[in-house]
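Q: Joint fold for the lines below.
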Amino acid sequence: MISYEQARNLVMERARVLGKEEVVLAGALGRVAAAEIRSKIPVPPFRNSAVDGYAIRSEDTAGQAGPVRLKLQAEQPAGEYFRKRLSRGQTVKVMTGAPVPAGADSVVPVEEAEEKDGVIFIKHEFKAGENVREAGEDVKKGQVIIAAGTVLRAPHLGLLAACGVSRVKVYRRPKVAVLITGNELCRPGEKLVPGKIYDSNSIILEALLETSPAELVALRQVKDDFKSLTAALRAATGKADVIITSGGVSVGDYDLVKEAAKKLGAEEVFWKVAQKPAKPLAFYQLKKGKQAAWLFGLPGNPGAVIISFEEYVRPFIKKLSGWQDYWPQEVEAVLTVPYRKKRGRLNFVRVRLEQVEGTWRATPAGQQESGIISSLAETDGLALIPAEADFLPEGARVRVHLVEW
Ligand code: AMP
Ligand code: MG
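A: Joint structure:
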């Protein structure tokens, strides 16, 4: 059986970006820029006023004893352009964002001026540049505004919009198909008959994929039957880059995912990892013309599904989508209680985290068995208890992966 570290490396070394596509800004949130972007214009594009006020020549207010009187020439709302040059003794009323006319070099806020019959009184001196936003002071023409590899967030999209960019080249997101196995499953809303349980993995995986850079192209329930499963897997391979199966990958009589994958000529990268939960995790490469499709066979217990998604599937999907920072975020924490386990498998322990005087403290969040769902809802992170450990005392330092679910 391979270790968690080996399994993680085997998965991640196979992740290659999928290619590029151009998308409109509205569809670019969370996508990764595939090329550097430079601005074709300066931002702001012209010198403009930072306040509602009066554009003046600062020299008109220099060294004056009493209030200065300036003659109001025009009013300029944002979006319009005053073409004449401001001469000595003149002023133009400007709104925030309106161009500052040629000749003017300073803006007096309305609150600091008085207006009477077309004359503006200014009580003190103003310096050149006051309340004026220079053309290009935010972004210079030709400046790099987005580096290749940037994950595009609200401010990046705003910056692109300000520079007039409407489309952006990003890495393609993987298409993901989900196959849920298990004859015991019925859907929430249906009547629960003896022997059946409600399917929680469908919605768990749908929700996890919703917050990862992937496109869900199919989500199907499949019977534990070799033919159905093989057919479903073949169809999924045709339309997805990544296939996630839930259940049917263990050693039970109806655990048929591996056989079905083999039937389709898949290459087993690994099956079984020295970890708890999700020991029977399987990872396969499927043939798909010249390309590859990838199969994560997740054990059916919901704890195993959600934890293997965070540890393997989400980082893999991120890397396929061009993310450079794909590993789970990690903090170091101290255990608030001792932890006992068998040697041999790394344990992912669901913990609650709190910070006390700069130190993260990790407390196990309830029951840890892989079939338990309730404690997942109380989990801030997964503490990684090393395979070789059998006892960690209270206060022991552990690595904790913050969960993104
Ligand atoms: P399996 O990996 O198919 O052997 O399933 C392991 C355990 O997970 C069994 O107790 C299943 O009933 C349970 N299980 C499998 N699939 C689901 C699901 N979609 N929702 C909830 N529990 C499931
Ligand atoms: Mg099953």
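Q: Anything notable?
A: The chain has a mean pLDDT of 97. The pocket of magnesium ion (ligand 2) is lined by residues 181-182, 224, 247-248, 254, 300 (CB under 6 Å).
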